[in-house]
Design brief:
Chain lengths: 188, 352
Protein backbone atom coordinates (compact mmCIF):
# COMPACT_ATOMS: atom_id res chain seq x y z
CA UNK A 1 0.00 0.00 0.00
CA UNK A 2 2.73 2.41 1.07
CA UNK A 3 4.66 1.24 -1.94
CA UNK A 4 1.84 2.10 -4.32
CA UNK A 5 1.46 5.56 -2.79
CA UNK A 6 5.19 6.26 -3.11
CA UNK A 7 5.27 4.87 -6.65
CA UNK A 8 2.39 7.09 -7.74
CA UNK A 9 3.89 10.10 -5.94
CA UNK A 10 7.29 9.87 -7.61
CA UNK A 11 5.73 8.84 -10.93
CA UNK A 12 3.59 11.98 -10.92
CA UNK A 13 6.62 14.15 -10.11
CA UNK A 14 8.56 12.45 -12.90
CA UNK A 15 5.89 13.01 -15.54
CA UNK A 16 5.23 16.57 -14.36
CA UNK A 17 8.96 17.31 -14.57
CA UNK A 18 9.11 15.89 -18.10
CA UNK A 19 6.16 18.01 -19.25
CA UNK A 20 7.63 21.09 -17.58
CA UNK A 21 10.89 20.39 -19.40
CA UNK A 22 9.09 20.82 -22.72
CA UNK A 23 6.90 23.72 -21.64
CA UNK A 24 9.61 25.99 -20.22
CA UNK A 25 11.10 28.53 -22.57
CA UNK A 26 14.31 29.19 -20.65
CA UNK A 27 17.04 26.54 -21.09
CA UNK A 28 18.09 26.62 -17.42
CA UNK A 29 14.54 25.88 -16.24
CA UNK A 30 14.37 22.97 -18.69
CA UNK A 31 17.68 21.63 -17.40
CA UNK A 32 16.44 21.87 -13.81
CA UNK A 33 13.23 19.99 -14.72
CA UNK A 34 15.41 17.27 -16.24
CA UNK A 35 17.22 16.99 -12.89
CA UNK A 36 13.85 16.53 -11.18
CA UNK A 37 13.03 13.76 -13.67
CA UNK A 38 16.37 12.04 -12.99
CA UNK A 39 15.98 12.28 -9.21
CA UNK A 40 12.42 10.90 -9.21
CA UNK A 41 13.55 8.06 -11.49
CA UNK A 42 16.21 7.29 -8.88
CA UNK A 43 13.46 7.13 -6.26
CA UNK A 44 11.54 4.69 -8.48
CA UNK A 45 14.63 2.47 -8.78
CA UNK A 46 14.90 2.55 -5.01
CA UNK A 47 11.28 1.37 -4.77
CA UNK A 48 12.16 -1.54 -7.08
CA UNK A 49 14.91 -2.57 -4.67
CA UNK A 50 17.75 -1.53 -6.99
CA UNK A 51 19.50 0.71 -4.49
CA UNK A 52 22.88 0.68 -6.24
CA UNK A 53 21.37 1.75 -9.55
CA UNK A 54 19.44 4.49 -7.75
CA UNK A 55 22.58 5.89 -6.13
CA UNK A 56 24.51 5.75 -9.40
CA UNK A 57 21.62 7.43 -11.19
CA UNK A 58 21.83 10.36 -8.78
CA UNK A 59 25.64 10.56 -8.79
CA UNK A 60 26.16 10.20 -12.54
CA UNK A 61 23.11 11.78 -14.16
CA UNK A 62 21.81 14.29 -11.63
CA UNK A 63 25.16 15.09 -10.05
CA UNK A 64 27.63 15.07 -12.94
CA UNK A 65 26.07 15.17 -16.39
CA UNK A 66 23.39 17.73 -15.55
CA UNK A 67 25.98 19.92 -13.80
CA UNK A 68 27.83 20.01 -17.13
CA UNK A 69 24.58 20.98 -18.91
CA UNK A 70 24.03 23.84 -16.46
CA UNK A 71 27.70 24.79 -16.74
CA UNK A 72 27.43 25.09 -20.52
CA UNK A 73 24.20 27.09 -20.27
CA UNK A 74 25.93 29.46 -17.83
CA UNK A 75 29.05 29.69 -19.97
CA UNK A 76 27.17 30.48 -23.17
CA UNK A 77 24.79 32.75 -21.26
CA UNK A 78 21.85 31.32 -23.19
CA UNK A 79 18.77 33.50 -22.83
CA UNK A 80 15.02 33.12 -23.15
CA UNK A 81 14.02 31.21 -26.27
CA UNK A 82 11.33 32.50 -28.59
CA UNK A 83 8.08 30.58 -28.72
CA UNK A 84 7.33 29.15 -32.13
CA UNK A 85 4.38 27.17 -33.39
CA UNK A 86 6.63 24.16 -33.96
CA UNK A 87 6.97 22.21 -37.14
CA UNK A 88 3.89 20.91 -38.93
CA UNK A 89 5.32 17.38 -39.00
CA UNK A 90 5.52 17.36 -35.21
CA UNK A 91 1.88 18.41 -34.84
CA UNK A 92 0.66 15.94 -37.48
CA UNK A 93 2.57 12.90 -36.27
CA UNK A 94 3.66 13.72 -32.73
CA UNK A 95 0.37 13.60 -30.82
CA UNK A 96 -1.03 10.53 -32.65
CA UNK A 97 2.37 8.88 -32.15
CA UNK A 98 2.29 9.51 -28.39
CA UNK A 99 -1.28 8.22 -28.19
CA UNK A 100 -0.37 5.11 -30.19
CA UNK A 101 2.60 4.42 -27.95
CA UNK A 102 0.53 4.83 -24.79
CA UNK A 103 -2.18 2.51 -26.14
CA UNK A 104 0.41 -0.11 -27.15
CA UNK A 105 2.07 -0.07 -23.72
CA UNK A 106 -1.28 -0.25 -21.92
CA UNK A 107 -2.45 -3.09 -24.17
CA UNK A 108 0.76 -5.08 -23.63
CA UNK A 109 0.58 -4.57 -19.87
CA UNK A 110 -3.09 -5.53 -19.69
CA UNK A 111 -3.05 -8.66 -21.85
CA UNK A 112 0.51 -9.95 -22.03
CA UNK A 113 2.04 -9.27 -18.62
CA UNK A 114 2.82 -12.29 -16.48
CA UNK A 115 0.16 -12.99 -13.87
CA UNK A 116 2.12 -12.21 -10.70
CA UNK A 117 4.01 -9.03 -10.02
CA UNK A 118 7.71 -9.28 -9.17
CA UNK A 119 8.22 -8.83 -5.41
CA UNK A 120 10.63 -6.22 -4.08
CA UNK A 121 14.22 -7.37 -3.89
CA UNK A 122 13.67 -10.37 -6.19
CA UNK A 123 15.98 -8.87 -8.76
CA UNK A 124 19.71 -8.41 -8.09
CA UNK A 125 20.08 -4.78 -7.09
CA UNK A 126 22.68 -4.60 -4.36
CA UNK A 127 26.30 -3.59 -4.98
CA UNK A 128 27.60 -7.17 -4.55
CA UNK A 129 25.24 -8.72 -7.08
CA UNK A 130 25.82 -5.98 -9.64
CA UNK A 131 29.59 -6.23 -9.19
CA UNK A 132 29.44 -10.00 -9.75
CA UNK A 133 27.35 -9.53 -12.90
CA UNK A 134 29.56 -6.74 -14.28
CA UNK A 135 33.00 -8.13 -13.52
CA UNK A 136 32.29 -11.83 -13.83
CA UNK A 137 29.51 -12.82 -16.19
CA UNK A 138 29.41 -9.75 -18.43
CA UNK A 139 33.07 -8.76 -18.21
CA UNK A 140 33.70 -8.65 -21.96
CA UNK A 141 30.71 -6.41 -22.85
CA UNK A 142 31.63 -4.20 -19.90
CA UNK A 143 35.22 -3.77 -21.09
CA UNK A 144 34.13 -3.19 -24.69
CA UNK A 145 31.72 -0.47 -23.53
CA UNK A 146 34.44 1.25 -21.55
CA UNK A 147 36.77 1.21 -24.56
CA UNK A 148 33.93 2.69 -26.63
CA UNK A 149 33.49 5.49 -24.09
CA UNK A 150 37.25 6.10 -24.06
CA UNK A 151 37.23 6.46 -27.85
CA UNK A 152 34.33 8.91 -27.57
CA UNK A 153 36.26 10.99 -25.02
CA UNK A 154 39.34 11.05 -27.27
CA UNK A 155 37.15 12.06 -30.20
CA UNK A 156 35.69 14.93 -28.19
CA UNK A 157 39.19 16.12 -27.22
CA UNK A 158 40.37 15.98 -30.84
CA UNK A 159 37.30 17.85 -32.10
CA UNK A 160 37.50 20.50 -29.39
CA UNK A 161 41.22 21.20 -29.71
CA UNK A 162 41.12 22.34 -33.41
CA UNK A 163 44.50 20.87 -34.39
CA UNK A 164 45.41 23.34 -37.17
CA UNK A 165 44.97 26.32 -34.82
CA UNK A 166 47.11 24.70 -32.14
CA UNK A 167 49.87 23.67 -34.56
CA UNK A 168 50.31 27.21 -35.93
CA UNK A 169 50.70 28.83 -32.54
CA UNK A 170 53.86 29.00 -30.54
CA UNK A 171 53.85 26.34 -27.78
CA UNK A 172 53.84 29.05 -25.06
CA UNK A 173 50.77 30.69 -26.55
CA UNK A 174 48.80 27.45 -26.59
CA UNK A 175 49.39 27.08 -22.90
CA UNK A 176 48.23 30.62 -22.27
CA UNK A 177 44.94 29.96 -24.05
CA UNK A 178 43.66 27.53 -21.41
CA UNK A 179 42.89 29.73 -18.37
CA UNK A 180 41.15 32.35 -20.50
CA UNK A 181 38.31 29.92 -21.05
CA UNK A 182 37.04 30.04 -17.49
CA UNK A 183 37.91 33.59 -17.21
CA UNK A 184 40.36 34.57 -14.52
CA UNK A 185 41.98 36.88 -17.09
CA UNK A 186 44.93 37.12 -14.76
CA UNK A 187 48.53 38.17 -15.33
CA UNK A 188 50.82 35.18 -15.38
CA UNK B 1 9.71 -2.94 17.02
CA UNK B 2 6.30 -1.63 16.08
CA UNK B 3 5.85 0.95 13.35
CA UNK B 4 4.86 3.64 15.88
CA UNK B 5 8.01 3.28 17.96
CA UNK B 6 10.07 3.19 14.76
CA UNK B 7 8.59 6.48 13.54
CA UNK B 8 8.93 8.14 16.96
CA UNK B 9 12.55 7.02 17.32
CA UNK B 10 13.38 8.18 13.78
CA UNK B 11 11.86 11.61 14.39
CA UNK B 12 13.67 12.02 17.72
CA UNK B 13 16.98 10.96 16.20
CA UNK B 14 16.58 13.25 13.18
CA UNK B 15 15.75 16.28 15.32
CA UNK B 16 18.63 15.56 17.70
CA UNK B 17 21.16 15.07 14.90
CA UNK B 18 20.09 18.20 13.01
CA UNK B 19 20.16 20.27 16.21
CA UNK B 20 23.67 19.03 17.01
CA UNK B 21 24.81 19.62 13.42
CA UNK B 22 23.52 23.20 13.33
CA UNK B 23 25.11 23.94 16.71
CA UNK B 24 28.36 22.43 15.46
CA UNK B 25 28.12 24.64 12.36
CA UNK B 26 27.60 27.77 14.48
CA UNK B 27 30.48 26.92 16.79
CA UNK B 28 32.85 25.99 13.98
CA UNK B 29 32.45 29.60 12.81
CA UNK B 30 33.44 30.65 16.35
CA UNK B 31 36.34 28.18 16.28
CA UNK B 32 37.49 29.54 12.94
CA UNK B 33 37.45 33.15 14.18
CA UNK B 34 39.14 32.29 17.46
CA UNK B 35 41.89 30.06 16.02
CA UNK B 36 42.61 32.40 13.13
CA UNK B 37 42.87 35.28 15.61
CA UNK B 38 45.36 33.39 17.76
CA UNK B 39 47.40 32.37 14.71
CA UNK B 40 47.63 36.08 13.83
CA UNK B 41 48.42 37.09 17.42
CA UNK B 42 45.00 38.69 18.05
CA UNK B 43 42.24 37.84 20.54
CA UNK B 44 39.27 37.23 18.25
CA UNK B 45 35.71 37.52 19.62
CA UNK B 46 35.82 38.25 23.38
CA UNK B 47 32.89 40.54 24.14
CA UNK B 48 29.79 38.34 23.90
CA UNK B 49 29.90 35.89 26.79
CA UNK B 50 33.00 34.22 28.26
CA UNK B 51 35.67 33.74 25.55
CA UNK B 52 33.13 35.15 23.10
CA UNK B 53 31.22 31.87 23.32
CA UNK B 54 27.85 33.52 22.66
CA UNK B 55 29.15 35.20 19.49
CA UNK B 56 27.36 32.69 17.15
CA UNK B 57 24.03 33.63 18.77
CA UNK B 58 24.73 37.33 18.26
CA UNK B 59 25.74 36.67 14.66
CA UNK B 60 22.54 34.70 14.08
CA UNK B 61 20.40 37.51 15.50
CA UNK B 62 22.25 40.02 13.33
CA UNK B 63 21.64 37.95 10.18
CA UNK B 64 17.93 37.66 10.94
CA UNK B 65 17.41 41.38 11.58
CA UNK B 66 19.43 42.67 8.63
CA UNK B 67 17.62 43.97 5.57
CA UNK B 68 17.16 41.22 3.00
CA UNK B 69 17.97 42.96 -0.26
CA UNK B 70 16.91 41.46 -3.57
CA UNK B 71 18.49 43.26 -6.50
CA UNK B 72 16.06 44.18 -9.31
CA UNK B 73 18.24 42.56 -11.99
CA UNK B 74 18.30 39.02 -10.56
CA UNK B 75 16.34 36.03 -11.86
CA UNK B 76 14.08 35.77 -8.83
CA UNK B 77 12.92 32.11 -8.62
CA UNK B 78 16.41 30.66 -8.82
CA UNK B 79 17.95 33.50 -6.81
CA UNK B 80 15.72 32.48 -3.89
CA UNK B 81 16.01 28.74 -4.49
CA UNK B 82 19.83 28.63 -4.70
CA UNK B 83 20.68 29.12 -0.98
CA UNK B 84 17.90 26.72 -0.01
CA UNK B 85 19.29 24.04 -2.36
CA UNK B 86 22.80 24.54 -1.00
CA UNK B 87 21.73 24.28 2.64
CA UNK B 88 19.29 21.38 2.21
CA UNK B 89 21.82 19.13 0.47
CA UNK B 90 24.54 20.11 2.93
CA UNK B 91 22.38 19.07 5.90
CA UNK B 92 20.84 15.94 4.33
CA UNK B 93 24.16 14.15 3.92
CA UNK B 94 24.50 13.79 7.71
CA UNK B 95 21.56 11.33 7.70
CA UNK B 96 23.66 8.21 7.05
CA UNK B 97 26.64 9.14 9.21
CA UNK B 98 27.01 6.79 12.21
CA UNK B 99 28.46 8.43 15.32
CA UNK B 100 28.44 5.69 17.94
CA UNK B 101 27.63 2.08 18.74
CA UNK B 102 24.01 1.75 19.79
CA UNK B 103 21.74 3.10 22.49
CA UNK B 104 19.88 0.77 24.85
CA UNK B 105 16.99 2.13 26.90
CA UNK B 106 15.21 -0.39 29.20
CA UNK B 107 11.42 -0.57 29.51
CA UNK B 108 9.91 2.42 31.31
CA UNK B 109 6.43 2.46 32.91
CA UNK B 110 4.68 5.82 32.79
CA UNK B 111 1.68 5.41 35.11
CA UNK B 112 -0.54 2.30 34.73
CA UNK B 113 -1.70 2.73 31.19
CA UNK B 114 1.36 3.67 29.21
CA UNK B 115 4.65 1.82 28.79
CA UNK B 116 7.62 2.87 26.76
CA UNK B 117 8.96 -0.41 25.36
CA UNK B 118 12.64 -1.24 25.60
CA UNK B 119 14.56 0.37 22.80
CA UNK B 120 17.80 -0.61 21.15
CA UNK B 121 18.78 1.64 18.31
CA UNK B 122 22.07 2.52 16.58
CA UNK B 123 23.46 6.05 16.95
CA UNK B 124 22.69 6.89 13.32
CA UNK B 125 19.55 8.14 11.62
CA UNK B 126 19.56 5.25 9.18
CA UNK B 127 22.04 2.52 8.26
CA UNK B 128 22.00 1.85 4.51
CA UNK B 129 24.01 -0.72 2.60
CA UNK B 130 24.89 2.06 0.14
CA UNK B 131 25.56 4.72 2.80
CA UNK B 132 28.77 6.07 1.29
CA UNK B 133 27.21 6.35 -2.17
CA UNK B 134 24.31 8.32 -0.68
CA UNK B 135 26.74 10.80 0.88
CA UNK B 136 28.61 11.17 -2.43
CA UNK B 137 25.36 11.57 -4.36
CA UNK B 138 23.98 14.23 -2.05
CA UNK B 139 27.22 16.22 -1.95
CA UNK B 140 27.42 16.07 -5.75
CA UNK B 141 23.95 17.68 -5.87
CA UNK B 142 25.25 20.51 -3.69
CA UNK B 143 27.00 22.03 -6.72
CA UNK B 144 23.66 23.29 -8.00
CA UNK B 145 23.25 25.73 -5.11
CA UNK B 146 26.54 27.41 -5.95
CA UNK B 147 26.16 27.28 -9.74
CA UNK B 148 22.59 28.61 -9.73
CA UNK B 149 23.45 31.35 -7.24
CA UNK B 150 26.23 32.55 -9.54
CA UNK B 151 24.05 32.44 -12.62
CA UNK B 152 20.80 33.87 -11.23
CA UNK B 153 22.52 36.86 -9.55
CA UNK B 154 23.13 38.25 -13.05
CA UNK B 155 26.40 39.94 -12.14
CA UNK B 156 29.90 39.40 -13.48
CA UNK B 157 31.60 38.56 -10.20
CA UNK B 158 28.89 36.11 -9.22
CA UNK B 159 28.90 34.40 -12.61
CA UNK B 160 32.68 34.02 -12.61
CA UNK B 161 32.57 32.70 -9.05
CA UNK B 162 29.81 30.24 -9.92
CA UNK B 163 31.65 29.03 -13.03
CA UNK B 164 34.88 28.57 -11.12
CA UNK B 165 33.10 26.76 -8.31
CA UNK B 166 31.25 24.33 -10.55
CA UNK B 167 34.33 23.59 -12.69
CA UNK B 168 36.40 23.02 -9.57
CA UNK B 169 33.80 20.85 -7.84
CA UNK B 170 33.27 18.65 -10.91
CA UNK B 171 37.02 18.17 -11.35
CA UNK B 172 37.78 17.32 -7.75
CA UNK B 173 34.70 15.13 -7.30
CA UNK B 174 36.37 12.59 -9.59
CA UNK B 175 39.53 12.28 -7.50
CA UNK B 176 37.44 12.42 -4.30
CA UNK B 177 35.37 9.43 -5.37
CA UNK B 178 38.37 7.50 -6.67
CA UNK B 179 40.43 8.10 -3.52
CA UNK B 180 37.75 6.33 -1.44
CA UNK B 181 37.77 3.14 -3.53
CA UNK B 182 40.86 1.57 -1.85
CA UNK B 183 39.01 1.81 1.47
CA UNK B 184 35.97 0.14 -0.10
CA UNK B 185 38.13 -2.64 -1.57
CA UNK B 186 39.68 -3.24 1.84
CA UNK B 187 36.44 -3.33 3.81
CA UNK B 188 34.22 -4.79 1.09
CA UNK B 189 31.12 -2.75 1.91
CA UNK B 190 29.43 0.58 1.19
CA UNK B 191 27.83 0.69 4.64
CA UNK B 192 29.64 3.24 6.79
CA UNK B 193 29.00 1.17 9.92
CA UNK B 194 30.64 -1.93 8.41
CA UNK B 195 33.58 0.14 7.15
CA UNK B 196 34.19 1.32 10.72
CA UNK B 197 33.74 -2.18 12.18
CA UNK B 198 36.41 -3.46 9.75
CA UNK B 199 38.94 -1.09 11.38
CA UNK B 200 38.74 -2.57 14.91
CA UNK B 201 41.89 -3.08 17.04
CA UNK B 202 43.65 0.00 15.63
CA UNK B 203 43.59 -1.38 12.06
CA UNK B 204 42.68 2.13 10.98
CA UNK B 205 42.87 2.65 7.26
CA UNK B 206 45.17 5.62 7.85
CA UNK B 207 47.78 3.30 9.40
CA UNK B 208 47.59 0.94 6.40
CA UNK B 209 50.89 2.33 5.13
CA UNK B 210 51.49 3.46 2.41
CA UNK B 211 48.25 2.77 0.50
CA UNK B 212 45.72 3.84 3.11
CA UNK B 213 47.79 6.88 4.03
CA UNK B 214 48.02 7.93 0.39
CA UNK B 215 44.26 7.42 -0.02
CA UNK B 216 43.69 9.60 3.04
CA UNK B 217 45.79 12.47 1.74
CA UNK B 218 44.25 12.38 -1.76
CA UNK B 219 40.81 12.33 -0.09
CA UNK B 220 41.64 15.23 2.21
CA UNK B 221 43.04 17.43 -0.57
CA UNK B 222 40.12 16.76 -2.93
CA UNK B 223 37.68 17.32 -0.09
CA UNK B 224 39.24 20.71 0.66
CA UNK B 225 38.78 21.63 -2.99
CA UNK B 226 35.25 20.23 -2.97
CA UNK B 227 34.25 22.43 -0.02
CA UNK B 228 35.91 25.52 -1.59
CA UNK B 229 38.29 26.07 1.29
CA UNK B 230 41.78 27.59 1.22
CA UNK B 231 44.08 26.81 -0.57
CA UNK B 232 41.34 26.11 -3.13
CA UNK B 233 38.93 28.97 -2.31
CA UNK B 234 39.08 30.54 -5.77
CA UNK B 235 35.27 30.69 -6.16
CA UNK B 236 35.18 33.34 -3.43
CA UNK B 237 38.64 34.85 -3.80
CA UNK B 238 37.93 38.28 -2.31
CA UNK B 239 40.86 40.03 -3.97
CA UNK B 240 39.60 39.10 -7.44
CA UNK B 241 35.88 38.39 -7.29
CA UNK B 242 34.58 40.47 -4.31
CA UNK B 243 32.85 37.43 -2.75
CA UNK B 244 32.30 35.11 -5.70
CA UNK B 245 28.93 33.44 -6.11
CA UNK B 246 27.31 35.05 -3.05
CA UNK B 247 28.27 38.64 -3.89
CA UNK B 248 24.65 39.69 -4.42
CA UNK B 249 23.27 37.95 -1.33
CA UNK B 250 22.58 39.55 2.03
CA UNK B 251 21.10 38.74 5.44
CA UNK B 252 19.68 35.24 5.95
CA UNK B 253 20.25 34.13 2.34
CA UNK B 254 23.96 34.84 2.72
CA UNK B 255 23.91 33.09 6.09
CA UNK B 256 22.43 30.00 4.42
CA UNK B 257 25.41 29.75 2.07
CA UNK B 258 27.69 30.26 5.03
CA UNK B 259 25.95 27.49 6.99
CA UNK B 260 26.00 25.18 3.96
CA UNK B 261 29.75 25.65 3.62
CA UNK B 262 30.39 24.79 7.25
CA UNK B 263 27.92 21.88 7.20
CA UNK B 264 29.82 20.48 4.22
CA UNK B 265 33.04 20.84 6.19
CA UNK B 266 31.48 18.86 9.05
CA UNK B 267 30.41 16.13 6.61
CA UNK B 268 33.92 15.93 5.17
CA UNK B 269 35.39 15.73 8.68
CA UNK B 270 32.88 12.97 9.59
CA UNK B 271 33.76 10.97 6.45
CA UNK B 272 37.50 11.32 7.07
CA UNK B 273 36.96 10.08 10.62
CA UNK B 274 34.76 7.16 9.59
CA UNK B 275 36.78 5.98 6.61
CA UNK B 276 40.35 6.48 7.77
CA UNK B 277 40.44 7.04 11.54
CA UNK B 278 38.21 4.29 12.88
CA UNK B 279 35.08 6.39 13.48
CA UNK B 280 33.88 6.00 17.06
CA UNK B 281 36.42 3.28 17.94
CA UNK B 282 38.63 4.05 20.91
CA UNK B 283 39.26 2.91 24.48
CA UNK B 284 35.92 2.09 26.14
CA UNK B 285 35.54 1.26 29.85
CA UNK B 286 33.38 1.83 32.90
CA UNK B 287 29.64 1.37 33.59
CA UNK B 288 27.15 0.73 30.75
CA UNK B 289 26.15 4.39 30.43
CA UNK B 290 29.79 5.46 30.05
CA UNK B 291 30.32 2.67 27.53
CA UNK B 292 27.43 4.12 25.51
CA UNK B 293 28.72 7.69 25.64
CA UNK B 294 32.49 7.17 25.22
CA UNK B 295 32.36 6.12 21.52
CA UNK B 296 30.42 9.31 20.73
CA UNK B 297 33.11 11.28 22.58
CA UNK B 298 35.89 9.68 20.51
CA UNK B 299 33.98 10.36 17.31
CA UNK B 300 33.43 14.02 18.23
CA UNK B 301 37.09 14.40 19.23
CA UNK B 302 38.28 13.14 15.85
CA UNK B 303 35.80 15.32 13.96
CA UNK B 304 36.93 18.30 16.04
CA UNK B 305 40.53 17.59 15.04
CA UNK B 306 39.60 17.74 11.36
CA UNK B 307 37.65 20.97 11.85
CA UNK B 308 40.72 22.44 13.56
CA UNK B 309 42.89 21.21 10.69
CA UNK B 310 40.66 23.11 8.24
CA UNK B 311 41.30 26.38 10.04
CA UNK B 312 44.98 25.63 10.53
CA UNK B 313 45.46 24.96 6.80
CA UNK B 314 43.48 28.07 5.90
CA UNK B 315 45.82 30.39 7.79
CA UNK B 316 48.99 28.59 6.72
CA UNK B 317 48.76 28.11 2.95
CA UNK B 318 48.34 30.73 0.22
CA UNK B 319 45.76 30.39 -2.55
CA UNK B 320 46.40 28.44 -5.77
CA UNK B 321 46.23 30.08 -9.18
CA UNK B 322 43.34 28.81 -11.27
CA UNK B 323 45.40 26.91 -13.87
CA UNK B 324 47.54 25.41 -11.09
CA UNK B 325 44.37 24.24 -9.41
CA UNK B 326 43.09 22.45 -12.52
CA UNK B 327 46.52 20.99 -13.36
CA UNK B 328 46.95 19.73 -9.79
CA UNK B 329 43.54 18.06 -9.78
CA UNK B 330 43.73 16.36 -13.16
CA UNK B 331 47.45 15.69 -13.57
CA UNK B 332 48.57 14.80 -10.03
CA UNK B 333 45.68 13.83 -7.78
CA UNK B 334 43.73 11.79 -10.33
CA UNK B 335 46.67 9.59 -11.51
CA UNK B 336 47.69 9.10 -7.85
CA UNK B 337 44.21 7.96 -6.91
CA UNK B 338 43.94 5.61 -9.90
CA UNK B 339 47.37 4.08 -9.21
CA UNK B 340 46.36 3.60 -5.59
CA UNK B 341 43.24 1.70 -6.68
CA UNK B 342 45.21 -0.60 -8.98
CA UNK B 343 47.93 -1.38 -6.41
CA UNK B 344 45.45 -1.91 -3.58
CA UNK B 345 43.27 -4.26 -5.60
CA UNK B 346 46.36 -6.20 -6.74
CA UNK B 347 47.49 -6.64 -3.12
CA UNK B 348 44.01 -7.63 -1.94
CA UNK B 349 43.66 -10.12 -4.81
CA UNK B 350 47.13 -11.55 -4.14
CA UNK B 351 46.38 -12.08 -0.45
CA UNK B 352 42.96 -13.63 -1.07
Amino acid sequence: MLHLILFLFFGTICVAGAINLLAQSHPINSALSLIVVMASLAAEYLLLGAEFVAAVQVIVYAGAIMVLFIFVIMLLNAGQEERTKGSRVAILFGIPGVLLGAVLIAWTLLYHASAEAVPIGALPGGPHEIARLLFHEFLLPFEITSVLILIAIMGAVVLASRPEAVAKRHPDETRKAVPELVGAGKER
Amino acid sequence: MTITTFIVISIVKSIAVIAVLLTAVAYSVWLERKVSAHIQNRWGPTRVGPFGLLQPLADGAKFIFKEDLTQPHVYRPLYIAAPIIALVFAITSISVVPFGNSAYIPEINVGHWFTIPEIETPFQITDLNIGLLIVLGITSMGVYGVALAGWSSNSKYSLLGGLRASAQMISYEVSLGLSLIPVLIKSGSFSLREIVEAQRHLHWNFFYFPLGTLAFFTYLISAYAETNRTPFDLPEAESELVAGYHTEYSAMKFAMFFMAEYANMVTVACLATLLFFGGWLGPVFGPPLLQMVLPIFWFCLKVFFFMFLYVWVRWTLPRFRYDQLMAFGWKILLPLAVTNIVVTSLIVAWRA
